[in-house]
C-alpha cells in the first residue's frame, strides 16, 4: 500500500479566516501537527487506514458496484442472446428451401463430345467444383458441411406409363431423377439396399438402379424390386428400385431444400383442367449421373449450400446480407462462375452460365425490420435504468464526500494539495471498486454466457470508472478553495447561477425537440435515439423544475404553521425548506426511475392489450365452434351449460352468397339481433343496436349491416343476393361496420336470421363468451367435424418469437432494476441527512420532546420531499406517456407479424405503473423516519451531545 505525504512547504491560501490549528477533533484523521511553513510530516498509509476505519462503507460500496457492473455487463449480452435466438427462429421458420444457397449450372452443351458431356456429370469433377465453390463463399456466410451437398438432377418431369402407379384422374404419374451425394450418410435403409452404378457408366447403360423414401413408396405403391420404365429417345430405360430409405433429419437442408426428395407431391393441373397426377423423386447413385443424358429430363448440375443456423448472429446480418448480394450478383458470383464455367467464351454465352439463387436475404430483411422496431423500445428502459444507476453511483460518492467534509476541509487547511487529495481519494475508491467491478463482470458472464464480451467489458469498466471518479470529483469541487467554515447551502439560500439557468434551458429545448420529433416521425429511422432519450429528458426537466418550485409551497405553508399551537409542524416545514441544494440528484433519480417504470409498465400493458385484442379479432369471442354444415339442434343448450360459459350467440354463416347474382361472392351472416348485438357490444367488435335488424322492412327489402368495403361497392340501394340453395334475398345496407365477430374478413353482410330460408337459417357457428372456458369440455360436447377455437389458445400464438419474449424480459428486468435504484437513491438521500436529524432529536429530547413527537417530526420533515417525488414522478410519467404515445408503435413487439385486420398496438396508460412506485416512495420515506426515530431512541442522547461532535 502506498504511503502519502499531504503537506506543501508553502502556506496555503485560505479564503476564510486564518486558523492556527483544527477547530474540531476528527477521530478518523491521524494527521501531523503544523509547526510552520517548513513542515515535513511523517508518512501516513492513507488507503489502508481508510479501509480499516470504515469497513462497512467499503463493503456496501463494493456490493453496489458489483451489482451495477453485473447488470450493466449482462444487458448487452442478454440483448445479443435474444436477438440471435430470434434470427435462428426466423431462419428455422423460413425452412431450408428459402434459406439454402443453391448454385445451378446449365446442362452440358450439345457442342461437346459425348464423352466430355458424361465427364461433366461425374462425381469426381462435381466434388472438386463443390470444394472450389465453398472456398469462394464470403467468410460472413458460415456453411453447415453436414447439410450441404451437390449432385445432378433432371429439370423436366418425365411421365411414366406403368399402369400400376396411382392415377387419381387417369393421368400417369411423373418422376424426376436425382443423383445427390451423401445419400447413405443422411438416410437409413428401411428395406433393400442403396442403388449402385459403375464408375465408368455411360449414357447408353441398359438399366439404372434407384431408391425412394418410405413416404414416396407409400404414395406411389412402390416396393423393393419394382421396375419403373422411363421413355427415352429410341428406347425405354428401366429403373429398378433397390431400396427404401428413411431420412435421418427430414427437416434438414439435405432433404428439405427440395422437399420432393422425401415427400411426393400431388400436382393439380392449371385451371380450367381438373386433372391431377403424382410426382415423385427417384434417388440414383452419383456415379449413375451420366445416364441422365439419355433421358428427356435435361439434367443440370447443382451445389446446395446450407447456412449454419447455429452460426447466425444478429450483429452479423449486415455483413451476411452483403455476402449474399455478392453471391447473387457480385464479385463472388463472378468467381464461382470462373471456378465452374471457366473463362467466358462464346460457348458459355450460348449455353448459359452458372446462377446462384436464395431467399435468405429476404428472411434477413424481414428480421431486421422487426429488430429495428423493437430495439428503440428496449433502449428506453436501458437509458432510463442506466441514468438512475449513474445518479445513484454519483450520490454514493456525494454522500461520502458530504460526511467527510470536515475531515477534507481540515486536511486542505493543513496544507494538503488538491491534486494529491483527489488522487488519494481516487486510489481509496479504486481499491474497492475495481475488484467489485471485476466480480460483477464475472457474474454477468456466468449468468449470460452468450453475447459479445467487449460490450460487457466496456459497460463494467464504465460503471467502475464512474464510481472511482464520483468521490474525487465531488471532493475537488467542494474543496477547490481552502475553507474551514461554509455558509448555508440549502435551497432557500442558494440561488441558481446563470450557467445553471442556461444549462436548464438547453435541456428544455432538447427535450421539447426530442418529443416533437418523436411524435412526428415515430419509432423508425433517425428518431431511434430520440425514443431512447425522450423519457429521460422529460424526467430531467421535471426534476429541475420541481427543485426550483420546491421552496415556494414550503414558504407558503410555514407562515400559517407558525400560528399553530404545537411546534412540530412549523419546525418540520422549516427544516424541509432547508434541504440541501444538492437534492437535485436524488430527485432526478426518483423522477427518472418513476418515469421509466411508468413508461415500461405502459409498454407491457400495451403489448398485453394488443395481444388480447388480436386474439379476440381472430376468434370473434372467447370461444368459437363452427362447421361447414348446420350444427345439431341441441348443441347450443348443451354448450350454455359448459363450465365458464356466460353467454352464447348462434349465427348461420353462408360463405358464398352472391350479390346481384354476380360471380363475386361474400359471406352473409344470419343472426338473432338481440343476442348478436349484445355480443358485439360486449366484445367491442362492430357494436350496433338490435333495432337495426328487423325481420323485414317496407317494400320487401331486408335491412342489412355491411362492412365498409361492401358498402362502398354496393351502396345503400336495394340489391338482390343469390343464396346457395337457389333462393334470393333483396337487401339494403342501413349500417356500416368496420368488422364483426362472426366473420374475420373485410367483406360481409349481416341480416336477421328470420329473413333466411329454414335450411340456411340453421346455425353453423356458435360464439361463446365467459371466463375460464374449458377447451376439452367444449371439444367433447361439439361434433367431431366442428372446429373449436379458444381465445386463450389463440393468444399463445403471439408470443412464440424469442425476439419478442427476450425483449419483454430485458425490458421488465430493466424497469425492476430502475425501481430498485430509485429506492436506493431515496435511502441514500435520507442517509445523507441522518446524522443531522439524529443530533437534532437528541437536543430536542433534552428540551422535553417525547419519542412520539420525534417520530412525527422526522415523518413530517421527510414527507414534503417524498410527496414532491411521488407526485412529480406520477405527473411526469403521465405526461411522458401522453406526449410520446402518438409516436410509439408496439406492433413489432406485441405481434409476430403485422396482421391487416388487427389494429396497431399503441402505448396505453397503466394506472398501476403510476400508482405503485409513487406509493412505495411515500411509504419508504415514512418508514425511514419512523425507523430512525426508533433507533435513535434506543441509542440515547449522550453520544450525540458530546462536545466537539461535528454532526
Q: Mind explaining what this structure looks like?
A:
- The protein is an alpha+beta fold and 951 residues long.
- It folds into four domains: 1-16 and 39-100 and 368-486, no CATH class; 101-357, no CATH class; 488-603 and 799-951, no CATH class; 628-785, no CATH class.
- The chain is built from 31 helices and 21 strands.
- The strands form two sheets. Strands 1, 2, 3, 4, 5, 6, 7, 8, 9, 10, 11 and 12 form a twelve-stranded mixed beta sheet that branches. Strands 14-15-19-16-18-17 form a six-stranded mixed beta barrel.
- A hairpin with a 5-residue loop joins strand 17 and strand 18.
- Helix 5 (123-136) packs antiparallel against helix 10 (331-341) and helix 18 (551-562) runs antiparallel to helix 19 (568-577).
- The longest helix is centred in the middle third of the chain and has 44 residues, at 360-403.
- It starts with 45 loop residues before the first helix and ends in a 12-residue tail after the last helix.
- The relative contact order is 0.10.
- Mean pLDDT is 81; it is low at 1-44 and 947-951.
